[in-house]
């Protein structure tokens, strides 16, 4: 199996605190890996360090066989950050934002087929009918799906997603799961931060669980507690927090797997 992502001894310090403690993570071609853990366990920081958005104090990252830096093949990598507003007052349409996903490095002009590819990517996330709508007129969940389409339009070999379906309704989550299944079939490797496997459960065969910035589990996804997967489960009751006691061995008591 070809190594698509390899992080070794990754240490990240932010605001004087060590957030990631020498994390090792290797992901092979075609894997779909779920990154799980309680709030504040370091999932987003890990993904951000993997794409170089936050600097690592120590350790190395290789993406698609190249060290993180000038040689990273960004045109083959898709990244969806944790919920950010797409619009930010810029009057771009959904289609324009998605087309911008085809720009990278020295490619500052979209290729001729960009419009067609953007339309396809928006269809994949169920937003084909809103392609020409200004992003600032879209709901938060719809904006999130525009960002997913923006990552998909590259047809990436490696896709990193930070809570892509948070705040997205169930039918759209299921549509996204189908799009991800198609990508996996075509060989895309996926690393996805999730609070719950939800609609993506059938796809995620490997779970990496973080706790206080260290990997505490790497293997089969832990089973959710009974009732947690049920559509009627409201998720408004407390799941505990960093101070909850006693946390289960994997620290999953805070992410909705047991309560
Ligand atoms: N820029 C920053 N400066 C200082 N501390 C930070 C910064 N960014 C994140 N942190 C801290 O790092 C820790 C991990 O945050 P991170 O966002 O990676 O967690 P997470 O597992 O993704 O959480 P969540 O599930 O809530 O999204 C938290 O304690 C957070 O307060």
Order of helices and strands: EEEHEEEHHHEHEEE
CATH architecture: 3-Layer(aba) Sandwich
CATH superfamily: P-loop containing nucleotide triphosphate hydrolases
Question: How confident is the prediction overall: mean pLDDT?
Answer: 81
CATH class: Alpha Beta
Helix content: 10-25%
Structural summary, described in words:
This protein has helices at residues 43-50, 94-100, 114-124, 140-152, 170-185, and strands spanning 3-14, 17-28, 32-37, 58-63, 66-67, 77-80, 158-162, 189-193, 206-211, 214-219. It is an alpha/beta fold and 259 residues long. It has a single domain (3-254), classed as P-loop containing nucleotide triphosphate hydrolases (Rossmann fold). A six-stranded mixed β-sheet has the order 6-7-8-3-9-10, sandwiched between helices. The protein has a four-stranded antiparallel β-sheet with strand order 2-1-4-5, with helices on one face. The termini are far apart. One of its GO terms (molecular function) is ATP binding. Belongs to the ABC transporter superfamily. Pfam families: ABC_tran. This is ABC transporter ATP-binding protein.
Describe the SSE topology.
Elements: E1 3-14, E2 17-28, E3 32-37, H1 43-50, E4 58-63, E5 66-67, E6 77-80, H2 94-100, H3 114-124, H4 140-152, E7 158-162, H5 170-185, E8 189-193, E9 206-211, E10 214-219
Parallel strand pairs: 3-8, 3-9, 6-7, 7-8
Antiparallel strand pairs: 1-2, 1-4, 4-5, 9-10
Helix pairs in contact: 2-3, 2-4, 3-4
The chain binds adenosine-5'-triphosphate (ATP).
Pfam families: ABC_tran (PF00005)
Domain ABC transporter: 5-237
Biased composition (Basic and acidic residues): 231-242
């Amino acid at each position: 199996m070809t190594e698509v992502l390899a992080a070794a001894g990754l240490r990240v310090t932010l605001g004087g605190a060590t957030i990631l403690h020498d994390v090792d993570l290797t992901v092979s071609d075609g894997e779909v890996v779920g990154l799980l853990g309680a709030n504040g366990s370091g999932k987003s920081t890990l993904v951000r360090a993997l794409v170089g958005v936050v600097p690592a104090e120590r350790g190395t990252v290789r993406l698609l066989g190249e060290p993180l830096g000038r040689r990273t093949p960004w045109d083959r990598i898709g990244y969806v950050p944790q919920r950010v507003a797409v619009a930010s007052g810029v009057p771009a349409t959904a289609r324009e934002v998605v087309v911008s996903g085809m720009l990278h490095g020295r490619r500052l002009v979209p290729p001729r087929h960009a419009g067609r590819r953007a339309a396809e990517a928006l269809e994949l996330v169920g937003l084909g009918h809103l392609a020409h709508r200004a992003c600032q007129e879209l709901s938060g969940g719809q904006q999130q799906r525009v960002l997913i389409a923006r990552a998909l339009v590259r047809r990436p070999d490696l896709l990193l997603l930070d809570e892509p379906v948070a705040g997205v309704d169930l039918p759209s989550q299921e549509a996204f799961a189908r799009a991800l299944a198609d990508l996996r079939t075509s060989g895309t490797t996926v690393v996805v931060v999730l609070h719950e496997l939800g609609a993506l459960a059938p796809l995620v065969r490997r779970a990496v669980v973080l706790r206080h910035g260290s990997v505490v589990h790497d293997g089969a996804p832990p089973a959710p507690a009974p009732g947690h997967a049920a559509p009627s489960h409201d998720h408004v009751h407390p799941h505990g927090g960093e101070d909850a006691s006693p946390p289960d061995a994997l620290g999953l008591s805070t992410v909705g797997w047991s309560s």
